[in-house]
Amino acid sequence: YCFHKFFKPGEAEKGCMVDGVLYPFGEVSRTENCLRCSCSQHEMHCCSLYTTPIDYDKETCKVIFNKKNCDYDVVQKHPSKPCAQFTRIG
């Protein structure tokens, strides 16, 4: 997913605030919450770095967010092993 925010004059004097963290103007390759952003004094545009699993066996598998890799892991409920087939959307 992506989002866009426009700033009023003087609102973004030192950078862009994303989830309580101030990032400098320019390109931000990865925020703490797995977003890629572009920041200027006038606007900020961010998109997620991960895709979301949508088509998997919900009876035998579960979805866990892996913040280190900025991605969702689809694993078997018992024990936690990768599930064979699933589809993602971005």
Automatic annotation (TrEMBL):
CC terms in the record's Gene Ontology section: extracellular region
Subcellular location: Secreted
One Pfam family hit: PSP94
Coarse class of the protein's main subcellular location: secreted
Record keywords, A-Z: Disulfide bond, Secreted
Gene3D superfamilies given in the database record: 2.20.25.590, Complement Module, domain 1
PANTHER family for this protein: BETA-MICROSEMINOPROTEIN (PTHR10500)
Protein family according to the UniProt entry: Belongs to the beta-microseminoprotein family.
Protein name in the entry: Beta-microseminoprotein
Taxon lineage: Eukaryota, Metazoa, Chordata, Craniata, Vertebrata
